[in-house]
Every structure is written in C-alpha cells, then in structure tokens.
Amino acid sequence: MTAPLLAVENLRVTFALPDDPHTAIRAVDGVSFDLAAGQSLAIVGETGSGKTTLARALLGLHPAGAVAGNIRLDGRELTALDEQGWRPIRWRRIALAVQNAGTAFDPVQRAGDQIAEPLREHLGLSGSDAWARALDLAGEMGLGERHLRSYPHQLSGGEKQRLMLAMALSCAPDILIVDEPTSGQDMLTRAKMLALLDRVRQDTGISLLLISHDLAAVARLADRVAVLYAGKLAEVGPARDVLQRPRHPYTWGLLNAYPNMSTARDLRGVRGGLPDPAHPPAGCRFHPRCTQAVDECRRVDPPLQPVRDRLVACHLGGLQTLLRVDRIAKTFSLNGNGFRVEAVRDASLDVLEGEVVAVIGETGSGKTTLGRLVAGMLDPESGAIAFREQDVSDLSGAALKSVRRQVQLIPQDPFDTVSPRLTVAEIVREPLDVQRIGAPADRVAAVREALAAVGLPDGDSFLTRRPHELSGGQLQRVVIARALVLEPKLIVADEPVSMLDASEQAKLINLLKDIQNERGMGLLLISHDVALVRKVADRIVVMRDGAIVESGPASRVVTRPQHAYTRALLGAAPSFDWFEDPGPASGA
C-alpha cells in the first residue's frame, strides 16, 4: 500500500495550568490517524474536545515541549523541528485557515497585502507578482480588487473567511486544514463556502483536514470522519457509514443533537458535559455520560479497535441493542366461539440504548398487544424477545425477575390500572414491594425521589391522597413515577398522554422525554398521534392489522413514507390547513 501523505501516531498535547504548574492538561491524548494524498478527513466533536489543539499541533504552533508522539509528512518526522525547521512546512506544505478570520487578519494592513505576504516570503515573488497572484486567488473566491484593498473591518465575516481561505491556498500546499469554515455564517454564505471548498478540492486534488461541528458540512466534504472526545478518538470510519450508522454512543449523541431540515424531532443534546481536562475520569472518558457503561468502562481506557467497517473505542463494541423483537406473534380467541384474532403477526423491531422508537397505527392495529408482549405481560406464541441479547423465554427465577425490573410499562388509562383503594405512596411503592428492594425507609425515599422527578409534590399530604383526589394529569404522572421507581433501562409507554388536554400532553411528553434522555433509558412509545410522535421519535414503526408494514428513521418515514397506509396516517394527522396568508389581524 502507498504510504500516507500525513501519518499521526500517539499524538499528545499537554499544557501546564498557569496557576498550578504541577497540574497538566492533556488536551490531545494518544491520537493516531492517516491522511492520504487527495483525501478529505473530518475531525468532529463538541467544543473543547481538542479539535483546534490537534490542528495547531500539525503546524508546530504550540510551545516547545507541549507536543509528543509522531507527526510524519511524506515520512519525515516533524515533532522534533525547531521554529526554523517549521518555516518551510507552514503555508508551503501544510496551511491552516483558522476559525475566526476576523481576528486572524492584522487590522492595520490591507487584506491584499496580508495575502501577498506568504507569496513573497515562501515563494520569493516580487511585490507586483505577489499582488497579481493575490488578485487571482481573490477571483477564485468570488472576490475582487476592492476586497484586497479593504481593511479587515471593512469586510463582512463571509468575505474575510474567503480571503483567509485564499491566503491558506496561496502557496499551493499539499494539505489544507480548515477550522470551522462555516461557523457563525448565514445559510447562504455557508452554502457558498462549502461549494467553494468542494470546488477547490476537486480542482487541485489537495488533501483536506476539516475541523468542524457542522455535520452537514462534514457529510458533503469528507471521505472519512474521526470523532474526538475529551482529547481521545472515539470512532473513525468512512463518512457515510459513521454519519448514517454511528457505532459509538458519543457519535450517536452528536447526531441526535444536530439540527437539520430532514426531521421534525426536537433536538436532544448529549447528557452531561465534557470532563475536566485537568482531572479526567478513570477508564473511558465518556463513561459518565454513557447510557450503557459497565464496570470495565469505569476502570479501563478502551483502545481504538476494529469493529466491522471502522475503528471504535468501546469495550462493548459500540452502541448496544437494548431490545430485539424477532418475528413474534400473538393470537386471541373471541369468547370461545371459534373466532380468532391475529393481534400481532410476524413482528420484528429493535430498540437501541437510549433510543426512542415509536409504534404508530390506528386503533386495533396491534400496538398495545405488542407493547404488553415486550413488557412481559403476555407471552408470544412464536418468535423471540431478547433483552440485552438474552432471550427472555430462556430465563427464569432471579434472572427473569431482573429483566422484569428493567422493563416497565406505562399503561394507557391510569384510572383503569391502579387500585382506587391505594394511596399515592402505595401506588408508587408497589414495584419496590413486589421486587423486595430496600428497607422500608429506603422505599419511602425512592418514592419521594420518583415523584419529584415527574414534577409532583413529595410531601406527606400528597403521598396519602387516593386516585379520585387527583386530576388526570397528576394520576398519569403518578403512574410514570411508579414505572421509574425501579430505575428501568426500557420504558414501554402505551398512549401515555392520549387522555390529556393539549397543554398537559405537551408538558408530560416533554417531561418523559427529558427523563428518558437524562437517565439513558430506551423508550418504546406506542401512539396513534403521528403529530406527537414525529417530535420525539428517533425511529418509527408502522403497524396495521397486527403486522409491521413500515419502519425506519423518523425523518425518512415522516418525509418519504414508502407504504400507502403510512401515507394515509400522515395525511390524516392534525394540521392547520391554511393555504393563504390571511395577513395581519386588523385593529378594531
């Protein structure tokens, strides 16, 4: 195989705190990757993950002694170079277009003079030739002599960004590093910048290292993606595969948090925050935010290792399947008269860790039966249900009891599912009593915590109320608290807000979604309300007459439904069908 143009191995960038020189911040910690000639690699991650620090290390822009590991350009080691040794590398071999072009330009020099400077310095061009070349470069960026003769404060942000790109390309480098090229730009300017970068790459064959949190830009420009978290690589692979089928839980969280026009689902950020770089957690640095962390994740730092078509740093091999339903069926007899109803037929679906999967369909389509099968309240006649890769039908005793604890059902009608004789405290405490979890005092504390989590009072006066003393919204929250008190990993919510008014629906579904995200639970949401489902679901499963007729990402099912029945459901969903603008309301 041909040697890569750029090879980075075990790169570490360490800074000492100004007020505590004995405490080191390892901003980049053991990063390795290759970049081939003509290839485009994107490095993505949250602000503070180390992306810009990594880019600056590739140009020798950090203080002496801060960088360790290997950076090889055409086989030549760069990390040992002094400032004099770096000079022929910068601009000529590797160039950087920085994130904030407004602060990168000298405010007292005209933009054209600043673009001409590296041409004179590195290529030895005369002043007139350097200016002529700067003018050509500006033209390639869609700009003219007026822009070159302007001072930075006389230019717009987009114009300065394009001139910064012109400066970076001025010496025809082998590698172009572009740091957040679309940050802070309007949509039209952003589109122009992406088109420009795409054209430059096609015309010149330059290698591109794209530093960005703009995942749509990454999808357009990158061949490969490297996901950086707290200074370490979490996932590396082909751009299309990583962005369509992420394997690391962090990558999946980044994609869920990214706004785009293909989905109506509300944004959901990665729970928690980046760790303190001076005191990172032991083991996997992502484990405090991960929904599937196990004990090994807390003790051992996972290596970046092959998982199918990419590299993933995860002891479990990446995002786990929490629930797998494989071709299950359930039939009911009607009053012993010989008639049988196939309530669920050959149904299959998955729920990943921390995922929201919605099951939609009209009344009688089999949704509730499917939910009760998943929750263990009914047994399938055929097929299999696996929880965390364990076939539930193979379990018994303590093992089955453990699964039952981790899968909880929120029923459709709370008035029909709780005893009117029980108090709020007894309703919420009942699962703890059945599972014999904790001492009496611990159970009371758990009840109060669960009630507080769903926004209900946890004082004695509320704990002693009975169902008839509560509103519909309050009782539904009590039922949700009962489902949460065992701290499950999967919630099956059967029409959890269908009996409430619109305002209470909105509050309760947002509450349930927030709790699900914060606690890292999976959620199987059963509903006939397509308008509500599209706001919360990652994936949608469509049922009709007991069978699943369509399933897929919520964005695809909602915007490009494949089955006629799905199109009918979407067409019947509530909307304000005003096709003409009535104009502003007139005053009296």
Report on the structure:
The chain is of the alpha/beta class and 588 residues long. Among the domains are: 1-93 and 207-284 and 293-319, P-loop containing nucleotide triphosphate hydrolases (Rossmann fold, 3-Layer(aba) Sandwich), CATH 3.40.50; 321-417 and 490-572, P-loop containing nucleotide triphosphate hydrolases (Rossmann fold, 3-Layer(aba) Sandwich). The protein has 23 helices and 22 strands. The strands form four sheets. The protein has an eight-stranded mixed beta sheet, sandwiched between helices. It has a six-stranded mixed beta sheet with strand order 18-19-20-15-21-22, with helices on both faces. A four-stranded antiparallel beta sheet has the order 2-1-4-5, covered by helices on one side. A hairpin with a 2-residue loop joins β16 (382-387) and β17. The N and C termini lie far apart (79 Å).
